[in-house]
């Protein structure tokens, strides 16, 4: 285990090595995976906290405590790479359970006060309309994403604009219909509008 952890600390870019290390740990049935993940959360290195996030994402489909830790503790992590892993972890949860079935959880996370929790959903589910359920219901995806267009967090608003731009490549009319209703005198909203339009 120590060598595995030491090895991931040496690599500064990407997710592949984190996923591979996580899968090795999960394959070892002698380990208490949840306990390990919670222990890794307090590590000083972002790589180990990314590993904790990956493990909790994998465990979240059968463990509500793991999902809660993603939403509460991981979402407060200051490192952007941990936040990227959180987005991937949330999408894994949604994909495994089913996007339609977890719609209440998606809405709950999108209603969170922490913009990083909302961003994990917006970023994790990109491209939204490539995902089951949202592929057949692009308007629902557009509405869920657009709801937070005037949020104070630029970090979140960037994710919103990019997600809408992704969708507009196939569902141009639906995205334009949504954008046409926006109040562009609001600076935050205008910021997202420009991103969504690719300006």
Descriptive report:
With 199 residues, this protein is mainly α. The chain is built from twelve helices and no strands. It has helices at residues 2-9, 16-27, 33-40, 46-59, 64-72, 80-97, 103-110, 115-124, 138-146, 154-168, 172-179, 187-197. The chain is elongated, with a radius of gyration of 18 Å. Helix 4 (46-59) runs parallel beside helix 6 (80-97) and helix 10 (154-168) crosses helix 11 (172-179). It folds into two domains: 1-78, Methyltransferase, Methionine Synthase (B12-binding Domains), Chain A, domain 1; 98-199, ARM repeat domains (Serine Threonine Protein Phosphatase 5, Tetratricopeptide repeat, Alpha Horseshoe).
Describe this structure in a few short sentences.
The chain has about 200 residues and is mainly alpha-helical.
Per-chain topology:
Elements: H1 2-9, H2 16-27, H3 33-40, H4 46-59, H5 64-72, H6 80-97, H7 103-110, H8 115-124, H9 138-146, H10 154-168, H11 172-179, H12 187-197
Helix pairs in contact: 2-4, 3-4, 4-5, 4-6, 6-8, 8-10, 9-10, 10-11, 10-12
**What is the count of DSSP helices, taking H or I runs of 4+ residues?**
12
| Share of β-strand residues | under 5%
Binned, the helix content reads 55-70%
**CATH class call of the largest domain:** Mainly Alpha
Globular, elongated, flat, extended or rod-shaped: what is the shape?
Answer: elongated
* Structural class estimated from helices and strands: mainly alpha
Rounded to the nearest angstrom, the distance between the terminal CA atoms is 48 Å
The biggest beta sheet is recorded as: none
SSE pattern = HHHHHHHHHHHH
Regions with little confidence, pLDDT below 50 for 5+ residues: none
Oligomer state equals single chain
